[in-house]
């Protein structure tokens, strides 16, 4: 689905110093959803920014925080994860897993009625996700095709857990949030929701998947809501002839008006759903519909006509193709329905492929056995309801006595009922606030108020382990005293073991932290003689330490071996030079060849390679040792001209010193020292010239 163009002022900004808003995905009555990048964990997320009328209500924000934490505790492959929740100035937001793909609504818009094989395969992960939520005590309250997300890789997830419950708690007395087309009767009547309310919505959704249409329609949302309460959902095969009887029974079981007649939760429904998938034949699973008939209008009853006229000018009319979430008010005049927006997430479209659906085993014999068992049950029920002999009129006086007894019994029952609902266990009471109490204190408070409670352990980041988080129904709610109260007890923050990050590169460590949903802390560098540069050598906290998600982990990255400046040892004796290099952490290598040098004495270092710069510990420096100056024989220049003698001596490398007598008038060498001897190259030869 193409992202809608917008001039939204949030695009390009950073929310709460962490989430870079990139584009707007969708806008509804409760919130606007953006595609954002979590800069701390370097991943794309769906950022749901609530509208100001919700974000400015402290009571709602507190409730939303609790619901977000409860939803975040769900970790299931078929439930969209809630990653974060917070406030940034006037902005209140939720951060959720970003699922790139499309919704079940997109599939229904493209294909209308689906073959049973595809419909059952698509709804199976939805029910599996609901089963996981129900087992954790969470109810969705707004199951509809728009909240079923299908990723491009085929994964199916249920989105928006927790938000519907939080918003319904923030509306006026008796109000709730939900989508009228999929709303359970008890919610329309203002009664408490439970897991069976989600089952009803899933049943309506399955009806639409099998038939291409919703079971109820009307000119206004209130007409649809009326039918949920007063009508019975028809068999799918009536709208789409040829569907198997098992599918009719499955849909009607889920959509029974009385919640007691529905599956108790998602787990119970999932078991039956998978059983049906294995018992239907290939022909029944691959049955396809012809052209989808026009959705039938609501029953032409007087009540329907009245509601239709009353809703002739609703607050907002709903298009037939949309399933927005609505607020429904259960007050003295229950005829106002306000559309509150569409699906919270909007995703890019992708084609749905049936090739990803697992092939199920079929067992026709089991299906026939199941039908036979159902028929036998019906026959026994009819037999039990049939009298075995005709009733006789009996004695009139006896009938009078019986009627008197009946009247007395009814009066006693009425008095008992009055006591039960007025002062007894059926009387209403207000749930007390037990937050941050010990379990014993909380249970005593509830008993004093007339309630029985059942503790249930939950993770909570803010409440210490062993103290109570709250109740369901929540504190301040007015309920009948016989209704059980769930007491949530904190297990403390949920902790996760840190992965080991040492031995790999910094990029690999970042990837591992993202996968573990941890944050990158301070990164420092240190020299290490054994570990190459760029490799992580330490982490804090250490591997295996259990911490909360989002905990920053500090890393130390190797800069490699520390470089060592090369010392200058030229002119030192060989032993002294070797020791100086070893003390610096370097290796001294003495060249086998020695050289003559007129300035460096024998046994001292003439040269080294390298002469300067830096080396790594243990690397070698080559030393060349002097064998002293070269010995040269001094020729005899006595009686020869001083100029010639100087030139030849200097050519041999000697330094010439001239002493002139009487000004050296003749320029002749009269005396020479040394003469005819071997002396070191560069020695001084003194000439006496006359």
Give a verbal description of the structure.
The strands form eleven sheets. A six-stranded antiparallel β-sheet has the order 1-2-3-4-6-5. A three-stranded antiparallel β-sheet has the order 7-8-9. A three-stranded antiparallel β-sheet has the order 10-11-12. The chain is 31% helix and 22% strand. The chain has 690 residues and is an alpha+beta fold. It has 19 helices and 32 strands. The chain folds into six domains: 14-97, Phosphorylase Kinase, domain 1 (2-Layer Sandwich); 101-356, Orthogonal Bundle (Transferase(Phosphotransferase), domain 1), CATH 1.10.510; 428-490, Trypsin Inhibitor V, Chain A; 496-558, 2-Layer Sandwich (Trypsin Inhibitor V, Chain A), CATH 3.30.10; 563-625, Trypsin Inhibitor V, Chain A; 631-689, Trypsin Inhibitor V, Chain A (2-Layer Sandwich).
Provide tags for this entry.
19 helices, Trypsin Inhibitor V, Chain A, alpha+beta, 6-stranded antiparallel β-sheet, Phosphorylase Kinase, domain 1, Transferase(Phosphotransferase), domain 1, 690 residues, 3-stranded antiparallel β-sheet, disordered N terminus, 32 strands
């Amino acid at each position: 689905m193409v992202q809608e163009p917008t001039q939204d002022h949030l695009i390009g900004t950073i929310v709460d110093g962490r989430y870079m808003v990139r584009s707007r995905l969708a806008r509804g009555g409760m919130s606007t959803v953006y595609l954002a990048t979590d800069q701390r964990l370097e991943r794309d997320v769906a950022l749901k920014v609530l509208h100001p009328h919700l974000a400015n209500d402290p009571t709602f924000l507190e409730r939303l925080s609790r619901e977000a934490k409860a939803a975040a505790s769900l970790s299931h492959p078929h439930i969209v994860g809630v990653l974060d929740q917070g406030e940034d100035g006037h902005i209140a937001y939720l951060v959720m897993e970003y699922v790139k793909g499309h919704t079940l609504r997109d599939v229904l818009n493209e294909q209308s009625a689906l073959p049973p094989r595809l419909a059952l395969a698509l709804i199976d992960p939805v029910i599996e996700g609901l089963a996981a939520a129900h087992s954790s005590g969470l109810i969705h309250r707004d199951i509809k095709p728009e909240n079923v997300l299908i990723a491009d890789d085929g994964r199916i997830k249920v989105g928006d857990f927790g938000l519907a419950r939080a918003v319904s708690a923030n509306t006026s007395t008796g109000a709730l949030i939900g989508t009228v087309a999929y709303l359970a009767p008890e919610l329309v009547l203002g009664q408490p929701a439970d897991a069976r309310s989600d089952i009803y919505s899933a049943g309506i959704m399955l009806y639409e998947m099998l038939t291409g249409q919703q079971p109820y329609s009307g000119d206004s949302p209130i007409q649809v809501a009326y039918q949920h309460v007063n009508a019975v959902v028809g068999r799918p095969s009536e709208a789409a002839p040829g569907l198997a009887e098992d599918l009719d029974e499955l849909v009607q079981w889920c959509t029974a008006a009385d919640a007691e007649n529905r599956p108790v939760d998602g787990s119970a429904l999932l078991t039956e759903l998978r059983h049906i998938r294995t018992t239907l034949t290939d022909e029944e699973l691959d049955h396809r519909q012809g052209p989808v008939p026009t959705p039938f209008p609501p029953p032409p009853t007087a009540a329907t006509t009245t509601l239709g006229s009353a809703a002739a000018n609703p607050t907002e009319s709903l298009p037939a193709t949309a399933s927005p979430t609505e607020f429904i008010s259960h007050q003295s005049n229950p005829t106002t329905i306000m559309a509150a927006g569409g699906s919270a997430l909007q995703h890019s479209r992708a084609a749905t492929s049936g090739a990803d659906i697992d092939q199920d085993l079929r067992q026709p014999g089991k299906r026939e056995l199941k039908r036979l068992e159902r028929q036998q049950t019906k026959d026994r029920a009819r037999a039990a309801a049939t009298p075995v002999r005709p009733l006789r009129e009996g004695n009139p006086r006896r009938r009078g006595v019986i009627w008197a007894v009946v009247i007395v019994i009814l009066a006693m029952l009425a008095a008992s009922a009055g006591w039960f609902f007025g002062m007894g266990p059926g009387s209403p009471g207000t749930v007390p606030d037990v937050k941050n109490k010990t379990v014993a204190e909380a249970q005593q408070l509830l008993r004093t108020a007339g309630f029985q409670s059942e503790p249930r352990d939950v993770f909570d980041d803010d409440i210490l382990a062993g103290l109570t988080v709250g109740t369901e129904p929540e504190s301040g709610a007015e309920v009948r005293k016989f209704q059980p109260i769930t007491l949530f007890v904190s297990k403390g923050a949920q902790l996760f073991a840190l992965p080991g990050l040492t031995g790999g590169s910094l990029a690999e460590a970042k990837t591992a932290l993202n996968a573990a949903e941890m944050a990158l802390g301070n990164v420092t560098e240190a020299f290490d003689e054994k570990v190459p540069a760029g490799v992580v050598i330490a982490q804090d906290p250490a591997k295996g330490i259990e911490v909360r998600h989002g905990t920053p982990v500090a890393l130390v990255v190797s800069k490699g071996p520390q470089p060592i400046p090369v010392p200058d040892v030229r002119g030192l004796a060989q032993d002294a030079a070797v020791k100086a290099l070893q003390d610096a952490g370097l290796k001294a290598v003495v060249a086998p060849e020695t050289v003559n040098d007129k300035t460096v004495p024998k046994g001292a270092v003439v040269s080294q390679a390298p002469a300067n710069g830096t080396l790594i510990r243990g690397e070698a420096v080559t030393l060349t040792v002097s064998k002293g100056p070269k010995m040269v024989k001094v020729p005899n220049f006595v009686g020869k001209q001083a100029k010639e003698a100087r030139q030849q001596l200097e050519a041999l490398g000697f330094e010439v010193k001239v002493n002139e007598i009487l000004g050296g008038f003749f320029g002749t060498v009269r005396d020479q020292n040394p003469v005819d001897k071997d002396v070191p190259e560069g020695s001084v030869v003194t000439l006496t010239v006359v």
